[in-house]
Amino acid sequence: MRIRFELYPDNIYPYLVPPLRPCLTRHSACTIGLGQGSGNSSVDPEPYWTEISDYFSFLALPVVVTFALATQVTSVVVLCQQHTRASLDIYLLGLCLASLLLLATTSVLAAQHYVGVYEALIRAQPYALSCRDWFWYTAIWLIVMMAFERALTVSATRASVLCTPTQTAVVVVMVFCVGLVSALPRFWEYHSAEHFDKRTNATALAAVKTASTATAEYNTMYFWYVKTLTIFLPYVMMLVTGLTLALRTRGPALARRYTAVKHTSAAAMARRMKEETALSRLLILLMAMYAAFSTPLCLLELLARVLPAWLDSETRVFAALHNLFTVLFFLHYALHLILYFCYSKHFRLTLLALCCCCC
């Protein structure tokens, strides 16, 4: 007997985390009515795998987000407890805060599927979407900036510090400000308004697009603007800085940089070189992990925009893939703590000290 998981009866908003759509609210007044490409779901029945994928995503998303929130809070506590902070620690603290806020705002958007549609949630959805993009852009560019600074540091002829912790803190604040400016259009894109429900012949509150941003020209322009900020430009910089870090942290290259610096012993120089290599590997893995976990979601939206004949964004197949790749995207935030622990000596020692105190 075939068991059907009716998570979204009558195709009412099958997205766990809202993409670029006219409405953000899971409500019958905002029915999208996804079909199989023609807009008519009765022509071709839905593939059964979409139901399984939706059910898995529905169960996995709160688990992944909760675990990611716990690991990011742990990382913030550990980084705040460190007595001596390098510039990279300040960057990591900013990244943890941006990731924590990103997960929190995403939880507000996805909560309607788990706790129901309440007026407070509907009124918070436009602001949550705007802040989600703000912290998303900030997290991306903090990774790029710390990798860029690290690449400049290892490319110097002498072993030296490029930025002090105070200067790094200023850079982190500036990245947050740039992320806010980049996400400003989102704050005027959606608003909470009464929406007429044809099924019940009554009005219902929903978060919908404003009239000025519902045009095809605005959506196209902002779509490519977002893709430039999240794919094209950061990926190129990640590739360049990643190659630089990989080449400059090899044994011979590090040895040439540290020969001009006096050390108390050869063991001290070897230990310092090992720490430099570990920090560079940390940044390379952060960039590689972000690219691996976010590319499927970004490419899905990009293909639906560029090649709609291959992948129609109005189908349940697209919605199921979007939910699955959304879970994958947030999974990588739960893995940051493992990278910090494995490749940052100060982070590892501080975390172990805190665990010993708690025990």
What gyration radius follows from the Cα positions, in whole Å? Answer: 23 Å
Order of helices and strands: HHHHHEEHHHHHH
Regarding quaternary structure, what we see is single chain
Q: Count every beta strand, where a strand is a DSSP E run of 2 or more residues.
A: 2
In spatial order, strands of the major sheet run 1-2
Give the SSE layout:
Layout: H1 48-81, H2 87-110, H3 112-115, H4 119-155, H5 165-182, E1 190-197, E2 202-209, H6 216-248, H7 251-258, H8 266-306, H9 316-331, H10 336-343, H11 345-358
Antiparallel strand pairs: 1-2
Helix pairs in contact: 1-2, 1-9, 2-4, 2-5, 4-5, 4-6, 4-8, 6-8, 8-9, 8-10, 10-11
Polypeptide structure, described:
The protein has helices at 48-81, 87-110, 112-115, 119-155, 165-182, 216-248, 251-258, 266-306, 316-331, 336-343, 345-358; strands at residues 190-197, 202-209. 66% of the residues lie in helices and 4% in strands. The model is unreliable at 1-5 and 35-44 (pLDDT under 50). It starts with 47 loop residues before the first helix and ends with a helix. Helix 8 runs antiparallel to helix 10 (336-343). The chain has 359 residues and is mainly α. It is elongated and about 80 Å long. The longest helix has 41 residues, at 266-306.
Question: Which properties best describe this structure?
Answer:
mainly alpha; 2 strands
